[in-house]
């Protein structure tokens, strides 16, 4: 049994990861920020432990990890997005995206590090996006944060590998979560048609890729695309 910590676990991809790892028999803790009812429902459904925590806050992350006795797998899934022209984007929104999507990973990896180093083993799985690989119009800030996550993953895999710690990344494509709630259904349908496998993804598609990376002991520094082939290149 592994102890798995998942950020952003109250909804979407994070909630699917909580369900999958809990079903495997792992001891699962998940962090969430605002959605108390959703977090409670996930905890009751899976038996996982919910911890309210803003990953952009070092103090809150350190307090959350202080209550977790051991960390074997850390999945950094918490993330927010922004749609619109960069020239029209308030600076505070830009800073908020980087605080959650990038600095949140920094905080959580550092909080898990004592447990990893003590055991001389550990697994970190970050969550980027296909837009972090190829960029998206009107999602410049989001694309920039997800590109940063990819670069951080690769750098950390080299830095932490000698300590027995693997660091990998998943890069989802169009995944049908609440982030897609305001997307025109016709646009989603068109994107599904442009995807080689002929559909958009589900949160569980990404969770299964995470489960593979958690077990793949000779894989590190990789970015695993989970986009149905949409961004092949």
What is the name of the CATH superfamily? NAD(P)-binding Rossmann-like Domain
Structural class: alpha/beta
Low-pLDDT ranges: none
CATH topology: Rossmann fold
Which CATH-level-2 architecture? 3-Layer(aba) Sandwich
The ordered string of helix (H) and strand (E) elements is EHEHEHEHHEHHEHHE
Q: Oligomerization state of this entry? A: single chain
> How much helical structure, as a percent, in the residues?
40-55%
Instruction: Give the number of domains.
Output: 1
First and last CA, distance: 38 Å
Q: Tell me how many strands there are.
A: 7
Q: Strand arrangement, largest sheet?
A: 3-2-1-4-5-6-7
Mean pLDDT metric: 94
The gyration radius over C-alpha positions equals 17 Å
Indicate the CATH class. Alpha Beta
Our estimate of the beta-strand percent is 15-25%
Question: What's the total helix number?
Answer: 9
Mind describing the biggest β-sheet? 7 strands, parallel
Shape verdict: globular
Describe the protein's architecture and organization.
It is a single chain. The chain has 233 residues and is an alpha/beta fold. The protein has a single domain, classed as Rossmann fold (3-Layer(aba) Sandwich). It has helices at residues 12-23, 36-46, 58-66, 91-101, 103-119, 130-134, 140-160, 185-194, 203-215, and strands at residues 3-7, 27-32, 49-52, 73-76, 122-127, 165-172, 223-226. A seven-stranded parallel sheet has the order 3-2-1-4-5-6-7, sandwiched between helices. Strand 1 (3-7), helix 1 (12-23) and strand 2 form a beta-alpha-beta unit. Helix 1 packs across helix 9 (203-215) and helix 3 runs parallel beside helix 5. The radius of gyration is 17 Å and the shape is globular. It starts with a strand and ends in a 7-residue tail after the last strand.
């Amino acid at each position: 049994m592994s102890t798995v910590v998942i950020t952003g676990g109250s909804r979407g991809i994070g909630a699917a990861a909580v369900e999958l790892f809990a079903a495997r028999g792992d001891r699962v803790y998940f962090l969430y920020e605002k959605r108390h009812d959703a977090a409670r429902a996930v905890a009751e459904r899976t038996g996982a432990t919910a911890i309210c925590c803003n990953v952009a806050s070092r103090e809150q992350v350190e307090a959350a990890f202080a209550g977790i006795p051991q960390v074997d797998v850390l999945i950094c899934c918490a993330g927010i997005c922004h749609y619109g022209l960069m020239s029209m984007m308030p600076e505070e929104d830009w800073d908020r995206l980087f605080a959650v999507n990038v600095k949140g990973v920094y905080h959580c990896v550092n909080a898990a590090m004592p447990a990893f180093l003590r055991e001389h083993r550990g697994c970190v799985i970050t969550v980027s996006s296909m837009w972090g690989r190829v960029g998206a119009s009107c999602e410049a800030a989001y694309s920039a944060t997800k590109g940063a996550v990819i670069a951080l993953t690769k750098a950390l895999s080299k830095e932490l590998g000698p300590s027995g710690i693997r660091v990998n990344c998943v890069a989802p494509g169009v995944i049908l979560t609440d982030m897609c709630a305001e997307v025109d259904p016709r646009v989603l349908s068109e994107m599904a048609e442009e995807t080689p496998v002929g559909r958009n993804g589900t949160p569980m598609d990404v969770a299964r890729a995470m489960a593979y990376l958690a077990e793949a002991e000779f894989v590190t520094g990789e970015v695993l695309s989970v986009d149905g082939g949409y961004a092949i290149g």
